[in-house]
Amino acid sequence: SIPGYDGILILDTEGISSTIKQDPEYDRKIFLFCMAASNIVILNIKGELATETQNLLGLTAQSIIELKTDVVETPTTFLVLNQNPDLNMNNYINSFNNTLSIVNEIFLGTQNTLHNILNLGLDTLVALPSAFSVEVIYKKREECK
């Protein structure tokens, strides 16, 4: 039970930056929809940050500015680097800061940044080796024998 909320709605968009679909406009629209409809957005990226992610973040931030709306509270955006064996966050900070610098170039001459538009910062950057624990799977296999 979360005070002030009657329930939780989880949107799993599956396929943002998909190699099969390859539709940046779809990616922008679905990510923008998630930003408008959510208090928390988790952008799960396999591996490391790539140009597609930079483009998606930049286009979404631009769209939010163009909408010029304060009707919806800006959600906190978590950037999850999934399937990374190295959990030392220091190894990802330079890549993340580089991404922020590249995307923030869009906003030169304004007071906007990805941090104040998407609530995205080092405190919302997460690296995971996997979405599940391999140890649990092996243990359950042993129990089934």
Structure description:
The protein is an alpha/beta fold and 145 residues long. 43% of the residues lie in helices and 12% in strands. It has a three-stranded parallel beta sheet, with no helix packed on it. α1 (24-37) packs across α2 (51-67) and α2 packs across α3 (90-104). The longest helix has 17 residues, at 51-67.
Outline the secondary-structure elements:
Layout: H1 24-37, E1 40-46, H2 51-67, E2 76-82, H3 90-104, H4 114-118, E3 125-127, H5 134-144
Parallel strand pairs: 1-2, 2-3
Helix pairs in contact: 1-2, 2-3
- Tally of contiguous helical segments: 5
Strand and helix order: HEHEHHEH
Give the proportion of residues in helices.
40-55%
Largest sheet: 3 strands, parallel
* Radius of gyration over C-alpha positions, nearest whole angstrom: 17 Å
Query: How large is the share of residues in beta strands?
Result: 5-15%
Uncertain segments are 136-141
The dominant shape is globular
Tell me the strand order in the biggest sheet: 1-2-3
> What is the number of E strands?
3
Distance between the termini: 39 Å
**Which structural class do the helices and strands define?**
alpha/beta
pLDDT averaged residue by residue? 76
